[in-house]
Structures are given as structure tokens and as C-alpha cells.
Design brief:
By secondary structure, this protein is of the alpha/beta class. It contains 6 helices and 7 strands. The protein has a single domain, classed as Phosphoglycerate mutase-like (Rossmann fold, 3-Layer(aba) Sandwich), CATH 3.40.50.1240. Strand 3, helix 4 and strand 4 form a beta-alpha-beta unit.
């Protein structure tokens, strides 16, 4: 692949304005969402993949917590934001909080989420996620993950992404992946009290990160 440069733009997307979100996407991304003739769900002729990646919503306490009331509200806001995005595949982790975050969108899109196993540690899970995204070429794919899986996933797919804080919810990454083209990434926010992000312009490509031993990995 030639030298890749990805400009990441930060936007605010009220859950009540999902169409505004779609209009903000690059032309190639809109084609992948709606089809080359503006239809409902057909893949573009150049088989662009649109990846929507989010962290799970606010969680309760415990080993495998469910979402809090605020988390359930954010999960609903995600579904509202993506209501017209024609999501065709959903990838989640075995954690209950990722599945509950994806559930409203899955119900609306009539898509059965695919659980990507955690066996083998974080690095193996991220590699499996990236492989699963690539297997859905030409589709709109929603990935609901964790603070330590979403940024590495974006990097594995050729983009730059900073680490996410434990208190950060409501960040939404939209990546356009087209064969033979540089990836494009939009960073947005959704739901109530979304994190106050700042726009950044940075080169794509895997960035340095510390790899945790599988036994010590914690998925937040």
C-alpha cells in the first residue's frame, strides 16, 4: 500500500439527526451505505466498506456487568443515529455490555450480532476483529468493543487512533475502506453527555502502543 494519509475530523451528531450524520460522510462512504444509485443497502460498485466503531455504553459494576440506565439510553441513541445507515453486519465481544449496546441497532437493522471470541488475549481478539471486518467487504459494519480494542482495531486497518480513556463514552468512529484507496476516518460523538473531543489531523498507520500480556488484559 502506498503511503497513507488519513485526515480525521471531529463532528457532533445529535441522535435526533441521523441523516445529518450520513450527509457528513465522504461520497464513497455514502455510496457504500446507500448503493451507487442512492438505493437502500446495496454495496457500491467499488465495494467500499463502511466501518462504524464504538465503545460499549456506560456499564454497571461486576465481572460481566450490564449497562446502567444511562448506558441503555446511549445504546438507544446509537440505534437512532444509525437508523438510516443500513447496518449489515455487527461484531461484538463476549462481554454483556457490548452485546447490550449493540442490541437496539441489531433489532432495528434485523441483524444477528457476531461474537468475536476473546481467547488468546487482546491482540488475538483485535486480529480476529480486523479479519471479520475485511470479510464483510462492501457492507456497513458496526463494531462495539472496548477502550483497549477499538483504537487497536482502527490501527490494524491502517488508520491512526489515540487511546481511549476509561470515562469516555459516546465516541463514534466512521471509517471508509475502499480497495486501492487511502482509508478515511471521521470521529464523531453521539448520545447524552458525549465526550468533548477536539479535531485532529494526523497520519494513518499503526502507531506505537504497549501490548498487555493476555493474562493481564482488562477489557473496559
Amino acid at each position: 500500500m502506498r503511503g497513507v494519509e488519513c485526515r480525521m475530523r471531529t463532528l457532533r451528531i445529535p441522535a435526533a439527526l441521523p441523516l445529518l450524520f450520513l450527509l457528513m460522510l465522504p461520497t464513497a462512504a455514502r455510496a457504500a451505505l446507500f448503493g451507487p444509485d442512492g438505493g437502500t443497502g446495496g454495496a457500491a460498485k467499488d465495494a467500499c466498506t463502511v466501518l462504524v466503531a464504538v465503545r460499549h455504553a456506560e456499564k454497571d459494576t461486576g465481572d460481566d456487568p450490564s449497562l446502567t440506565e444511562a448506558g441503555r439510553a446511549r445504546a438507544k441513541a446509537l440505534a437512532e443515529t444509525l437508523a438510516h445507515a443500513h447496518v449489515q453486519a455487527i461484531l461484538v465481544s463476549p462481554a454483556r455490555r457490548t452485546q447490550e449496546t449493540a442490541a437496539p441497532t441489531a433489532t432495528h437493522a434485523r441483524v444477528e450480532p457476531k461474537v468475536i471470541p476473546m481467547e488468546g488475549g487482546t491482540d488475538a481478539h483485535v486480529a480476529a476483529l480486523a479479519k471479520a471486518v475485511k470479510a464483510e467487504a462492501g457492507k456497513t459494519v458496526l463494531v462495539v468493543g472496548h477502550t483497549n480494542t477499538i483504537p487497536p482495531l482502527l490501527r490494524a486497518l491502517g488508520m491512526n487512533a489515540n487511546e481511549m480513556g476509561d470515562k469516555e463514552y459516546g465516541e463514534l468512529f466512521v471509517a471508509t475502506l475502499c480497495p486501492g484507496e487511502d482509508p478515511r476516518l471521521i470521529k464523531a460523538s453521539f448520545g447524552h453527555q458525549a465526550h468533548d473531543d477536539r479535531a485532529s489531523h494526523s497520519p494513518a498507520g499503526p502507531g506505537p502502543r504497549a501490548s498487555k500480556p493476555a493474562a493481564a488484559a482488562s477489557h473496559r
